[in-house]
Amino acid sequence: xxxxxxxxxxxxxxxxxxxxxxxxxxxxxxxxxxxxxxxxxxxxxxxxxxxxxxxxxxxxxxxxxxxxxxxxxxxxxxxxxxxxxxxxxxxxxxxxxxxxxxxxxxxxxxxxxxxxxxxxxxxxxxxxxxxxxxxxxxxxxxxxxxxxxxxxxxxxxxxxxxxxxxxxxxxxxxxxxxxxxxxxxxxxxxxxxxxxxxxxxxxxxxxxxxxxxxxxxxxxxxxxxxxxxxxxxxxxxxxxxxxxxxxxxxxxxxxx
Length: 256
Description:
CATH class: Alpha Beta
Helix content: 25-40%
CATH superfamily: Creatinase/methionine aminopeptidase superfamily
Number of domains: 1
Number of strands: 16
């Protein structure tokens, strides 16, 4: 069932999204060669707890950490480790969740570690562009398929692949709510967006093929062909005339 949020609920979700944004901004200072993903996880967890919230991923379906730290060919759900040390040339997608005043925040961003290749930079730029171009069309009455179709439109000229095994989602008092928001689709198809819906749009793009596999830890998901993967995500509320981004640190984030 799709839950329509009140203005009060949307503001509570914005507070959670703001905390996620601040956590990303803090982590940016530490994303450099020689730092372990476990260190990043500890920094994020301490900050979230000190802010009066709790990590949203830790313990969720038994996930063992605060962050998902996904390096290079890891698409999503990488588990932080003291043995996993960042090196120059890596790209790392960091997905962060929290629960603040009973409402979830959730946002992912991909970062360059030191000097990265032009191919990696382009993949990051185009994946981020696909996120924002998809957000721009959000308003009451558009179909969920329009979002996926817009992501396809952005990435297709670069012959990138869209990972189809994972989707965006609704969000509220639960981390994953209806509806699912696929990163591919046909314009005009699917459920129509309504004012008060809050969704996470999160394209996951590779510079190889779309196929993925899950490692023995039952979480870490990698590209089957070892190609680079990139992941960006924002929380977006559907407003009367358009949208507002809830996880970009702004107090309004509105667009039409």
